[in-house]
Each structure stands twice: as C-alpha cells, then as structure tokens.
Design brief:
The protein has about 350 residues and is of the alpha/beta class. The chain is built from 13 helices and 14 strands. Helix 2 packs across helix 5. It is globular and about 60 Å long.
Length: about 350
C-alpha cells in the first residue's frame, strides 16, 4: 500500500464480533488490513502486557515483543508499510496494539476496555457499562460499534434481494447465535425460536430470512435447516460465503436476535428494523457487563426483550408500536477516529 495513502491496521483476536467492531469504527473509505494476533502461550501474552504498560517509548520499542506472537515477522513486514492508525477490540490484541503503535509512532485505538487499561491509547471507544473515565480521548458507547452503515444499507439490501431472487414484500429476520461460556442454544430452543418467528411472520404477512452463526451448534443448525423450505432465505452461518447480515437487516421490518451476542443485537439496533432480543438458555450467571448492555438498550427503547414463550405477542406489540430510535454509536466512533488521524469521517 502506498505510504501516502492513509490506511488502518486492524489487529484481530479471531472473534467476528470484535473484528467487526474494529472495522466498523473506521472512517468511510479508509482502507484497512486485518492481521490475526496469536500468542506463543499464556506466558508470552503476560510478557507482552507488561511491556505494553511501560510508558517509555524507547524501552517498549527495544522489547522483543514481536517474538511473542505467531508470525511476528509477518506483522513487522506489514507494519513497514506504515499504517495511519492501529485498531483492536478486546484484551487479546491490545498489548500488541500499544507496542506496535509506539514503535511506529502512530495513534493506537481500542474498542472496549482491555486488561492493559486505557492509559496508553490515543483513543478509547468504551461502553457505558464499563464506567469509563471522563477524558478527552474516551468516547462512550451504549452498545457495540459495528459495520452496519445507514448510508449504504438500502443498497446492500437491494443487492442481497437481487442475489437471492427475493421479491418485494415484507420481511422479518432471525439472527441465531450459539453456544458460549455463558449461553447455550440447543435443538429444542433453536426450533422453538424458528417456529415462533415463522408463526409471527405469517401472522403479519411477512416472509422470514434466517441466518445461524459460527457458534451455532451443528445439531441445532441441522435441525433448523430441516425447516429451511419454510423460509424465504436460510443461511448456515459457518458456511456463509458472504456477509449477509447487513443485507438482511436492510430488508427487515422486524429482527429477532438471540441475546448471547451483544454485537449482533447492536447491529440490529443500528438498522431501521424493530428489534427483539431473544432470551436463550444461560449456563450459570451471565456476565454483569453483558446483561448491563442488554438492559441499557432495552431501557433506551432500542430493543425489546422476549423469550420463545412470548415471542409472538412481544413481536406483534413491537410491530404495532412507534418506530424505535436507531443506535448511533458507530457514527460517533467513526467521527472520533477521523479527527484523530485527520481524514473525513
């Protein structure tokens, strides 16, 4: 990439939601490259974190941090092309973000609150439930920044409609998450969600668009796929050849999104659709921060919460209500990054 062309280096921990946040906060038209960060064991990550906490650029610059990660040589070769900014989300890539940005003397941007703290970052995009400090370099968000862009959403919807031969009409969407450390979506619950959405859509003269995710359990996905013939569109998320969610949301009047993914709920709340955050099975206690985000989005009127038991009634009430506000976290984050590096948002 030419050195006089601004671009962003996105460091990824491999989690789609985190990667989407990092890309979503970039100003429109800003080129980016994604580099996966993996550490040579827990000890290597701890050493990188300790080095990142050092405030002295010279000492941090001499630390052999690039030897702590997989393909450190590849990262250094990419860094030699001089990005305008280094961006990451979450705790995993944060130490390398700080160290690399200091080495290159370019701004470092973090989404969320990483374990290394916010002190070394030039810009921190932090959710409200983390109780971020009141600092000029901190932008407070309600949900998770994402790649849903209101300015391009209509075009993405029409392109999605054309690719899949969907007629003009009314659509509802089901975004199905999956298993994690705190949540589980088994076969029975996956089918209950799909059957409920099909019934809700039929009641209101809509067709249903469905996608699972990489975290959806194979048996749950297979059981749901057996009902694909009743859907206008069904995508097995683990085999998704395209990024279908923006196009689906662009066509939807109603989006039902499982609560296990704050990123998916935030994407839906950033689109024009009315949003139901659907409760799923919880394994023990749900992280306080996760629950705080969902509660804040519900309190702000961006989403309504429901379960598979009351899905049809809650969805019908939501469709009869006034249109909700649209979450605008991403636009504010893009503007802050643009100011930081001197480009148009």
């Amino acid at each position: 990439m030419a050195q006089d062309v601004p671009w962003a280096l996105v460091l990824s921990d491999g989690k789609p939601g985190h990667e989407n946040q990092s890309i979503g906060v970039l100003p429109k038209g800003l080129a980016h490259r994604v580099f996966p960060v993996t550490f040579h064991g827990r000890g290597a990550r701890l050493r990188a974190s300790l080095a990142a906490r050092l405030r002295w650029r010279a000492l941090a610059g001499r630390f052999p941090w690039h030897g702590l990660i997989g393909d450190g040589a590849g990262l250094m070769a990419l860094a030699a092309e001089r990005p305008s900014v280094v961006v990451s989300a979450g705790s995993g890539p944060a130490p390398i973000n700080l160290l690399l940005a200091r080495h290159l003397r370019v701004p470092a941007v973090t989404c969320m609150t990483p374990s290394v703290g916010l002190g070394g970052f030039d810009l921190a995009l932090v959710p409200r439930h983390d109780h971020p400090p009141d600092r000029p370099n901190v932008v407070v968000t309600l949900g998770a920044p994402n790649r849903v862009d209101p300015d391009t959403l209509r075009a993405e919807g029409e392109a999605f409609r054309a690719r899949h031969g969907l007629p003009q009409g009314r659509y509802a969407v089901l975004l199905m998450g999956g298993d994690s450390a705190r949540f589980r979506i088994g076969v029975a619950q996956g089918l209950a969600a799909l059957e409920g959405c099909l019934a809700l859509a039929a009641r209101h003269g809509m067709e249903l668009l469905v996608t699972t995710s990489r975290r959806t359990a194979p048996d749950t996905e297979a059981a749901m796929a057996a009902l694909a013939h009743r859907c206008a569109y069904f995508c097995a998320g683990r085999d998704d050849p395209e990024r279908v969610v923006p196009g689906m949301l662009a066509l939807a009047e109603l989006a039902v999104v499982t609560e296990d993914s704050v990123s998916m709920v935030s994407e839906a709340a950033s689109a024009p659709a009315r949003v139901l955050a659907l409760g799923v099975e919880r394994k023990g206690g749900v992280p306080r921060r996760h629950e705080a985000v969902l509660a804040a989005l519900a309190d702000g009127g961006y989403v309504r919460r429901a379960t598979t038991t009351d899905l049809i009634a809650a969805g019908s009430a939501l469709l009869a209500a006034a249109p909700p506000p649209r979450l605008d976290d991403t636009a504010r984050c893009r503007a802050a990054v643009a100011r930081l590096i001197g480009v148009a948002p």
